[in-house]
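Exercise: predict the structure of this protein bound to beta-L-fructofuranose.
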Amino acid sequence: DARDVFAAVDLGASSGRVVVGRAGLDELALTEVHRFANRPLRLPDGLHWDIGGLYQGVLEGLRAASEYAPRSVGIDSWAVDYGLLDASGALLGLPHHYRDSRTDAVAPAVVERVGAAELYARNGLQYLSFNTIFQLAAAAGSAQLRGADTLLLLPDLLAFWLTGVPGAEVTNASTTGLLDVATRRWSPELLEAAGVPASLMGDLCAPGDVIGTLLPAPAEHSGLDAATAVAAVASHDTASAVAAVPARTERFGYVSCGTWSLAGLELDAPVTSEAARAANFTNELGVEGTTRFLRNIMGLWLVQECLRDWGLDDSALPGLLAEAAAAPPFAALIDAGDPRYLPPGGMPARIGAHLRETGQPEPADRGALLRCVLESLALAHRDTLRRACKLSGRDIEVVHLVGGGARNELLCQWSADALGLPVEAGPVEATAVGNIIVQARAAHPGVSHAELRRLIHTTQRPRRYEPAAGTASAWDAAAARLGLE
Ligand code: LFR
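Solution:
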């Protein structure tokens, strides 16, 4: 039945894809119809996204999806980045990339001015130098910001180009640092701290809401029926990924593992204690009014950047992973949450410097370096999930690792070993799955989210990794070396 077909536009830091999903009461089948590269642009004034290129990729993907006559289209991407529009709706400059360094000095100054405790009490977010609030503070006084009428986060900007309707989907809005963690509305105090007028921010909408239907031009360019709805989904990719966690119990933790590892818990309410602030945990919004209580870990970015530095692509990974598996265990370890790894470039050298500083031997070869990175990531997953449990008073019995990292057998097994808990790996395309099920849920409101999670478990069955016997004490010792939980 065509009424059960939905299209997901899912933009990641290195590629975008369009996935068509057929979702019914006992069916969930996904087909990737288009994939395109996402290459950031280095311009004189910093690192930007090629938003025009991304929009072309979206149109081409929707053309491929049009054959399936989807009932609606949903868009998700990474968080925090935005475009500014003037009063006529024209885009003012290319959106900055969150890995641009222009907020490095400004972000601590804003925290200093507002007060770290006050900021956390208001927005409940972990400190990340690139949060929208800091990006706007860095842009303060610029002609672009002064000429701006509307700010749209990237999925909202693409939805605006498709429909002509501006808005602000709330899961993504919750990553800006400008949303009040208690009221879930734009915070006048935080907007003032960022130095921007409240009128800049769009009207909030929630996953499942219809944003609009297609304007004539994008309908023509995509081949989709002009009556096709553009639906708000959990437009923050991590919120979509968490929505797709195939949990069968409430006692689960998750790691959404791609370019980033986002490790944490799904809670009914935020935890904004002083201890949560000191541990730098974030309270971002999920579907159904849930809170994603988590922390950002550098993730596979560390691996991707090593490969790029070595002039290799993903096809080299299986060979390198085999070398990593054969390299000596726990020879060297890094803090995989360290913001020093945020900017692009020179990753193997930066890891080497970190190891020298901490009096550790530098890896003998690429396999050993990869082993250092993957063991360090597993330790960061363990530390973050254990702390999340302590801070929230919750307990977990299984960890779901979703996203591209679910393909990495070493990382899955080592995460299970480090945590001393089973890891259920997959779906790899969790973000697209979450995007689709939110649209399906809006079309069939009778189905509960827990039921959909079980449907994901049966149709996209995860692979289960049990912690290997006899490994616990080695992981405890390794965690202690880094001062981790
Ligand atoms: C993951 C992600 C993270 C966010 C980072 C920057 O793709 O969305 O959740 O902290 O990218 O936006």
